[in-house]
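As the work plan foresaw, our protein records have gained a structure token line. A representative record is set out beneath this paragraph:
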Amino acid sequence: MQLKPLIPLLTLLLIPLYGCHKDSGTVEVPEDETPQVVKFGTNLRTVVTTGTKASIVEWTGQEDLFVYSFQTGTVEQDKVFLDNVRADSPAGGGLSGAIELERTEAGHEGEPYYYPSGTTTYDFYAYYAGTAKTKDGNGDDIEPSIAGGKVSLPVEIDGSQDLCVAIADKAADCAEAGISPLNAYSAYSSRKGIIPNLVFEHQLSRFVFWVKAGDLLGENVRIDGITLESLSKGSLVIANVNNDRKRGLEQTSTLAVLSLQNGGDGTNIEAFEPGFEGTPEYGQIGESLMVVPGADEYKLEVLMHYIDPVTGERSGDDFKYSYTLTPSMINPQPESGEAAYRAGYQYNVNIAVYGLQMVKVNVTLTQWGDGGSILIDNDNEWPDQPTKAFKMANGVYFYLYYAVGAQSPIGAKVKTWNSVTNEMDEVGAGTYEVADPVAAGFLSLTIDEDSVVTAVNS
């Protein structure tokens, strides 16, 4: 039995505004501009594991999300727009819903945040850490720090928490509205309906445990606990404008034994009876264990005891079974590259019990996916606006700049967004397939060495 994909990608949609923000005070709003309040819309694509609940498949309104925003290309304290601003996830269940950021400063409680007016653009980041934040000497959460072009948060996991980081993709968001990413995210782009989509990427590997009795003798075994040995401390990089742009866990350390729990409620699993009915099926035990990815091996231990089939009473000593999980055990193995336990992947550990002296283990892999859409809306208020944008089969967005009066892509200049330099780059010569031929109306574009469309291929 395979578990359906869990622990998904989360997408946050932000709608920023004009007015006042944390450091600038009140901003005068020109008469021809409309203030826009910073709001979030969310799209839940995977399951989050929190410190108070089991893995969830929909927003509950109980997840604490935190948002940062800086002037484009910077991560500096004096360039911050949103500084670790907390928001509840959408209430009422479901995979999507709106949330809002509210100020907490004295005299401004409950007021919304606004984009400053003008042409300044911003980057957006977010994270979810649940109860994995570390404590200071007074027992208070240690908050993220801004230093060296990074925002970092010290974390410590116990196996029940999920860790996620997110960044808004200007190329994808602007393609949907047909405007240049150079203009996002800003008061202008907000008025054009550009919503920063924060796609949360999970930074841990998730192990889900399934147990069955391999024969009638195994039916008399009870499982009292399951543990994995994993690194437990590290630094969660939320934003990074250095050359590597790497976000996620780094500087991991300190091996710890993580115990499987019933859910996120801090209680260990109760005695579990695998069961045997001739053709046994695997049954899930406990919730899951979230561990630091990338280890060459994880030490698995299963604590069991035996029930006398006649008296029904506990019989004999407890027994601890130890096993080492290595990447070579993953089924299926990757088609290319070396097998590894990766962040954002779920691994189903299937345990067959044949009495106290024999346990068989195998590991299967469940992977998560993503998706997207395009809306076109041209505007001439800002210079150098693309006419249309298309998502290509390689995942990159192409922005097409039509000649005046042109109705066809032929002759259009083609550019693509460089998220490292925050600039538009020309596209090299070649033929490029589109991701959605039905929506685009053609299969591919042929582009010459001057980054101009020479043919539309149907």
